[in-house]
Amino acid sequence: MRISPDELIFWQYGFIKLNATIVMTWGLMLFLTIGSWLITRRLTREIHIPRWQNILEILVLGIKEQIKEVGLQQPNRYLPFLGTLFLLLVTATLFTILPGYEPPTGSLSTTAALAICVFVAVPVYGIKERGFGGYLRSYLEPAVIMLPFNIISELSRTLALAIRLFGNMMSGAMILAILLTIAPLIFPILMSALGLLTGMVQAYIFSILATVFIAAATGEEAA
Amino acid sequence: MLIDWFTVVAQAINFLLLVWLLKRFLYKPILQAIDDREKRIATQLQEAGATKEDAEKERRDFQKKNAEFDQQRDALFSQATAKAQDEGRQQLDKARKEYKTLRAKLQESLREEQHSLSREITDRARQEVFAISRKVLADLADATLEEQIAAVFIRRLLELEGKERKKLVEAFNSAGRPAIVRSAFPLSAAQQAAIGKALKDTLVPKAKVQFETNPEQLSGIELSMNGYKIAWSITDYLASLEKSIAVLLNGKPKAEAEPKTKAGPNQDTDEKND
Fold this sequence. Notes:
The complex is a heterodimer of chains A (223) and B (274). With 223 residues, chain A is mainly alpha-helical. Chain A has seven helices and two strands. Chain B has a four-stranded mixed beta sheet, covered by helices on one side.
């Protein structure tokens, strides 16, 4: 039994390998990009807009509003990173309804990669916003003695991000697979729906936490 | 091992690539479109506000003009009414005046007609009376009447006294010409002699007398000389008769009757006949 889609390797040359995680992610990327392109290539600036454009606008504005609510006063600056994070995780979860699909987020490699991206993005945005010295000083707050704890917190929360998402997504797929062997009718459907829900929640949690971390680093959090 | 580091790196790159792609194809155009539309809506709202403002202004202007128009119309109407009333009053006054004038004219013409009628009646009556009288007198007053007239005239001459006599004498003396005695009928030689004798006896011994006949005199004798006149005629009786007729016609003595008497042949005599 496969725990991670990483284990399904289509092609390998030395350490370079094309496993299911990467291929699924490409598929999602293609879907998102082509879908966006198809809709946005015919954007209208009139008062009356097409439905698809309306849906996209609701989505983008909703994300933007969410970022603003967390405390980032200039959401447009963080929208591409945080929005993409959320959209990728949501699509990855949504596609679980398709047979033969395995969510790339069920691979610890993917969640780790995303957590590392967040881990890198936090200081990048922090330095951009407050300057190098200003960002480093945030590790000494509220007192110098807190420096090691701050560093530990930084590392542990990144680890937590990766493990949380991976655990939830992997467990969902795992439970589904196990249930299919013992109760092949109806029950897996309910579990699949539950998996969708937890997947959505996790996507939201992951994105919100990333937003909160960035807000903390840039010192723009509402609190 | 759950983590495949190659996959981690590949996924990180995939993610960053997706970030770029979505930024390029999703966020940018969508946000741009939203901004544009918001701007457009804001502009349209502003325009609508301006249009509404304009419309409001137009409405106010229109109401103001309407009110002014109403006011003007009312003013003109009342003016016209007043003018019409005035005009009507004037016309009425004019008509009344014209009526009065016409009435006065009518009355005047009526009066004149009456007057001329009465004058005509009077004239005719007088003429008739004169004609009758003349005929009667002509029938009756043959030599005897004329003689009587001459006798009366001579008696009057003889009866002249004091002041009258003196005046007559002075007139005789101052005039170089002979005295003229006019009569309606030709005086006989005896009558002429008697008159001449009376003049000579009573007034001036050397008086010269010239006799003339005037049918208009109507049975009378008149002595005129140097503006002085002494006469006797029945004209005075006729004037008196005329007066009585006028009184009968008009119910009261008319003013016109007076000039008739005055216009009589004895107007400028100093002495009244009997």
